[in-house]
Amino acid sequence: MNGRQALFPTFFLSGFECSTFLWKDAGRRDLCAETQHQLHADEDYRLLRSLGIAVAREGIPWPMVDRRGRYCFGCIDAFLDAQRRHDILPIWDLCHYGYPDDLDPFGDDFAPRFAAYARAAAEYVTARAHHGPAFFTPMNEITFFGYMAGEWGWAAPFGRDRETRRRLTLAMCKADIAAVKAIREVVPDARMIHIDPLILVVPPRDRPDLADEAWRETYDDAFFAFDVIGGRRHPEAGGAPDVLDIVGFNNYSFGQMEYRPEGPHAALEPGDPRIRPLCDLIEEGWKRYGRPTIVAETSGLKGGRPDWLNDVVSESLAAVNRGVDLHGICLFPAVDMPDWHNGEWLHNGIADLERLPDGSLMRTPYPPYVEALRRWQHRLNRVTELDAVPYDSPVNLADIVAAAKAVAPRPDDDWH
């Protein structure tokens, strides 16, 4: 079947939690260490290979490798080795909520410092890459980071008002744009994936006067970072469509919310008639920018993981049937992660984690989730296990379009 090649060798992607924020009551966090991903890098990447997943989001911990402009990238060598051994293509996440202790995100040196680090990181990983092209996410979830660190006070710089959130979001956008340009100076064909959540905010039933505020958060604030990076707002920052490049939308169950003036907002309960089909949200986001698109993170919780996967894939295929240029769905995370607030395991990964008496964390794939993934791989004519050369035949988007037409899913406002 003729058709365009997708961006990636497999339609299903995955990734590993890699936050390095300075947390409100716990100091510097390193979620990669908390999940022992570095210690289990070979096992974690072998899991992806066995599942027919050839692409993984992986983090470089900026606060740990950047010492006042001097870099030590040795902490990611285990990832590079495992990627090479198991033929997994990385999407390198350069700032997952954390920045070095000596930096002020509102300072004039923030963007140049991030750009210099991004350039050095790109040189390091591409010199050791087993396959191209190189993919990067410079600043992860800029809009969400603006809220959590600029208005809700969860992480540094611990802002607690809208103005600080807006300033932080714009500062991150400027750093992101500078990083894209620095990376392309050394890796001209590098691709950039910019990622933020898809959300819907509605007013409380008894507060219709808050409808404008809810609309603003859904269609103005939520897309602010993409707009700046894509050159639609603040043109002095240097954004442009080719800087935005690839758009990644994250989707979780708490993404559709009832507005709360003081925030965070309250997630809508299943069955709430105000919930909209995920298909609609993907289509609206894609039409806004017209860029290649992925679902960059999604996962259910505990026993709901297979049903969540079924819903998200169905809604994604419905979006394909509406013409959305969708290149992949990222099941995130590959292995479980702790709740940021209380440390309890979320049971949202393809594999759960269990602490053994010696302190190590055993990885155990969750069978119903794996079985649901296998069913969708078969329906989409995708591999279920990587062959010896997984990069010789990228996904043919015509296969995805044909499968979407054959499945013919109906957008469902009860996907929640």
UniProtKB/TrEMBL annotation:
Protein name as it appears in the record: B-glycosidase
SUPFAM superfamilies the UniProt entry points to: (Trans)glycosidases
GO molecular function: hydrolase activity, acting on glycosyl bonds
Keywords: Glycosidase, Hydrolase
